[in-house]
Amino acid sequence: MASYNVSLASATATGTFVQDHHFGTNALHGVNIDTTGDMLPHDGFVAAVDALDLTHLRYPGGHAENTLDVTRLEDGQLRAEVRAFMDWVVENSTPDKMIQVTIVLPTKIDIPAAQIEAFVYLLLEQYGDHITGLEIGNEYSIGKRVEGFDRSTHPEDIPDSDFVSSMTESEYGISANRVINAAQDAIDRLAQDRPGLGHDPAILIQLGDTNGAGSAYKGNGSWDDANEAILEWLDQRAMDAIDGAVAHYYYNQSHVETQVFEGTYQEVRSLDQRIDNFNEHLGREVPLYITEWNVLNTNMNQQGMAAASTLLEMFEVMVQLDTADAFIWPLQHRISNTIAGNRSDDGVDLSAGGGAFKLMADNLRPETSAETGHVERFESIDTEWTGSNGEVETNYYASPYHDVIYVSLRDLDPGTVNFDLRPFLEEAVSVDVTRMTMDPASSDGLSDLADENGLNRLGRRYIDAEEYAALSQLAFFDGSDKNHIQTTGDGQYRTYLPTITGIVTLTGNPDSIEGYYFATETDVDPLFVTVTGDFLNSGTVALNMMPYDVAQIVIEKKWVQEGGSGDENFTGGIGMDVVLGRHGNDTISTGEGDDTLKGGYGDDLLNAGSGNDSIHAGDGNDTVFAGAGDDLIETGRGTKVIHGGAGKDTVYLDGNTSAYTATVVNGQLRLIGDGTDARIDGVETLVFADQRVSVTNYLNGLEGGPVDQPKGQYGTAFDDLLNGSSDDEILSGDAGHDILVGQSGNDTLMAGDGTDLLIAEERGLYGTDASEQVYRIYKAVFGREPDVNGHQYWVTQLASTARTHAEIAKGFMGSPEFQTTYGTTTDVDFVTLLYQNVLGRAPDPGGLNAWLSNLSDGMSRQMVVRHFAESPENKSSTHDGQADFDARWDATTWTDDVFRLFQTVFDRAPDADDFQDWTQSLSNGVSLESAVNTLMASPEFQASFGSTTNTEFVARLYQNAPGNDSGDSAVWIRALDAGLDRAAVVIGVMNSPEAVAASQAAVKAYVQSLGLDDVLEAGSGNDILSGGVGCDSFVFDTTDKGTHIVTDLEPWDIIDISDFGYADVDAAFAHMQQQGDDVVFLDQGVTVVFSGVEMDDITDDMISLL
User: Fold this and answer.
1) Between the CA of residue 170 and those of 41, 176, 232, what are the distances in Å?
2) Is the pLDDT of residue 582 over 90?
3) Whole-model pTM over 0.90
4) Where does the DUF4214 domain lie (predicted)?
C-alpha cells in the first residue's frame, strides 16, 4: 500500500469564485417530465432537486430541437407542456428561493420569427420573474449530418421520428440570427407594453464546435474558423444582443495509461481558448455558460468511483474559467453518468459522481448573512503540493470563514494520504473530515443500473477481443453468463462488467468475486465516513483510501479584520468574526456567529448581531447593539449607549459600584461615573470592579427604593412574533423577518435587521397590497368577505413573506368551507361557480372554454382560483368593498369621528380613556349609530338635551358642531318631525363636510395634547410600519437601508429623520416627492413610502430634526 505525505508548497488566489448558479441541472422533456397527464416533473426528479437544493434549471434541454417545439402556441397561448412546467416552477418557488429557468429555443428547424417572438413575449409576460436565460439552439454540429435536410417541419410533427440533422456553422449562424432578433423583438415589445416588468433574460449563443459531424471544419479546421463562421451571419443587432456563449463540457479522457490529471487541453476541452477566441471575434467580452457537463457517458473508464474526482476537477476548471452558469447533465436518466439515479426512480439514488456533486453543493455555495448582507463566497485557489506525485489530486477553495479541501486518490492501488493541515490552522476553530468511498453492499460487479427487480437496465457496452480476453482471466468470469459476455449476431462482444483497467485485485490471487474492487462500476453507491481525530493539535489527518476515494476537509476559521487610523466600515457575516477597529470612528457589524468586536479609539458603532459575542467598546462615545445571544460587553471610557437585545447579557464597568450614580430615563438605566456615561437596556447582569449583580437587584437596591425595569421583549436572529400587552414596553425584533404587535400601551417597536412588520395597535397593515390580496382571495375562495381576525392573520403572513400567495390559496382550498362549495364539482361547474362567486356573473363562452382547456392541460384548480382573484375584473369589482372593509376595521379611521362625536354631543373633547375606548370599539365592529345612542343615554347628555324639542335639539347640535350653516337646520328639523331618529341627525351633523373641515385643526391639537403614543423605529431591510390612534413617531436612521412603507401617516404623527442631519425642514422636504398616491422620501439608500398621502398633508411640525 502506497503512502503519501502531502504538504502545501504554494497557494495563489485566482480571483474566481463559486456561484450558486454553478449548481444547476437539466430538466429534460420526456425523461424527467411527463409528456402526458399532468405534464409535471417526475417524483424522483423533484426529490433529487430538493435533496441537492437546485434552483437553476435548463428546460427542456436538447429536446427543444427534436421532441418538443416549445415555441408552438395553442389558441394564442403557451402550450400545455410549457405552462405545466412553469406553473410547477412558480408554485415551488418562494421569495427567498426562486427557481430560475434557462429556456432552449430551437434552431435546427426553420421556425418563423413571428412564432418565436410571440412565444418569448408570452413566456416573459407570464413567467418573466423566473426566466434568466434564452439559449439559442442545442449542439448545432452534434449528431448525424444529412445534406439538404428538410428543416421546415419539427420532428415532433413527424410520426415515429425524433431525428433532426446537425448543422454547419453557416446554417447555425443564419438560424441564430433569426432567433436572436425574434427574441429581442419580444423583449423590446414587452418593455414598451409593460415597462414595470423589466424582464431581460440573457441571450446565449453557442461556441463554435468542430467535434460534431455537422461542422464544416471537422478534421480540417479549428474553432477559430467555426466561431468566425457563426458570427459572420449575425447582423449588428443580434451581435449586440449576445450576453454569453454556450459550451458543453464532457470529460472524454479515459486515463487508461495513467490515472493522474495532467492539465492537458484535452482535459479542459480547450474551453479557455475557445471563449477567448469567441470574444475576439465578437469584439467584447461575454462570459462562458456551461449548459451541460459531466463525464462523457461512453467514457466508461471514468465512471463509478472514478467519476467523483473527475467531477471535482471539472468543477474547478469551470470556476477558474469564471463560468456564469453550469448545469449538470443528467440529474436522473437511464444512462451511465446519471447523478441521482435512473429516470424511473421515485426517490434519490446518488451515484459516486452525484456524491461528489452533493459534497460541493452542500459546502461551496455562497451564503448570505441575514443580518449584515455579507456574502461568504468560496474562491478557487491554485496550489502546488509536495509528496503527491500526481496520484493525490487536491482541489482547494477558501472563504473568510472556511477552507474546503478535496483530496482524491487517483491511483488503482489503495493508499494512505498523510495530509498536512498546519498551513490552514492559524485561525482555525474546528476541522471536519469526511471520506467518500464505495458502499461495498452496492457493488455486484455489473454496470447495469438495474432496479431492485433487475429491470430498467442500461445497454451493455461493446468491447474488443483484447478486453474480452482480459476479462475472461478474472476468477469469477463465467462465459455462459450473458451479463459477463454476449456475442452479437455480427460477432461483436458486449458486457455489463466494468472496464478491465478499473477492476482492482484486493489479494494476490483472488479466487472469487470478493477478491476484486470495481472502481469503475457505474451504479455503486457512495458511502460517507466521518474521519475523527484531534486535528487542531496534531496538524495532520491520515486518510486510508481506496482507489478513487475522495476526502473532504472543512476547516472553520475566524475572520480577522483590523482597522487603521481612519474612519472605517467593517462588515462580518455568518461565521466567527474578530474585528479590531483601532483608531477612527468605525462602524462594525458582524452578524451571526460568536464574534469579537473591539472598537478601540474613536466614536464607534458596534453591531454584534446574533451569537454569544464579546464586545469591547474602548474609549470614545460608542453605540453598542449586542443582538441576540449571551453577550459580554466592556464599556470602556466615554459616553456609551448599550442595547443588550435578546439573551442573557453582561456589562462590565471598570469602577466600583460606588463610583457610579444611577437613574432610569426613557426606559434605560443610566450609569455615570469613573469617566463613563452608560445608557443601558436589555442587559441582565452588571459587573463592577467590586461586585457582580443582576440588573433587577441593582435597581431594587438604589436609594429611594425599588425601581421598575423597562419592560420589554427582545427577538432573536430568527423570524420572531412579539406580541405586546397593555403595558408600556419595548419590542425589539433584532435580526430575522419579525412581526411586532404593540397592542395597547405606549410602546417602542424596533425593527432591527430583516424585513419586519411593526404594528402599533392590535391590528394594522390596512391599505397595503397584502390587505387587498387577502381580501380578494377570501372573496374568490369562499365567496365572502374575510372575518377581521382571519384577515389580519393572513395579511401578516403574506406581508412578512412567511407565506406566499400560492400557499395561502392552497391552504384555503383545503378547508371544509371550500370543499363544501367546490370540492366535488366538475370542471364546468367549478369554473361556473368561480365566475358567479368571484366576478358576480355567468361565464362567457370564450372564457369558460379557455379555462376548461387550461384545466384539461394540467393547470391546477389552485392556479385558476389565483388567476380569478388577481384578475383585473375582480380587482375593479372588489375595489370599493375592499376599501370599505379596511376603513371599517382600521382604528385610525375612527380618530376624528370620535372627537367630532363628543364635540357634537357634549360640546367638549373626549377624555383620554373615552377616546381610546371608543376608537377601539368602533374599529371592533360597534356601529356609529350604536355609539351615538349609548352617549345619548348618558346622564351628561340627558342633562343638556333630554327635554329639548326637535328645534332645540338641532340648534344645540349646530352650536356644538363647528362649521355647520345654521340655515340648513330646517332640513333636519323637518326630518325629525317626520320620524327620523335623533341618532341619525347627530351622525349627519357631525359628519357634514363643513364640520369635518372645521374640526381638523382641533382634532390634530387634541391628539397631540395626549402626548406621544407609540414609537416605531425602522431597521435595515424592507419594513412595513402601521401606527395607531394616537400620536406616533416613525423613526428612520441613515443605517436603515431598504424600502419602508408607512401605512397610515396621520396629521398628528411625527416623522423622525433627525439622524440625517438636515439643517431645516426645507432640506428634509427636498428629499420627498409625490409619486402617484404616495409621498416618497429618498436619501442615503433609505426609502420611505408614506402610503395614501399628499405632499400638502405633511406639515412642518410633523418633521422632527432634533
Assistant:
1) 36, 10, 8
2) yes
3) no
4) 809-876, 933-997
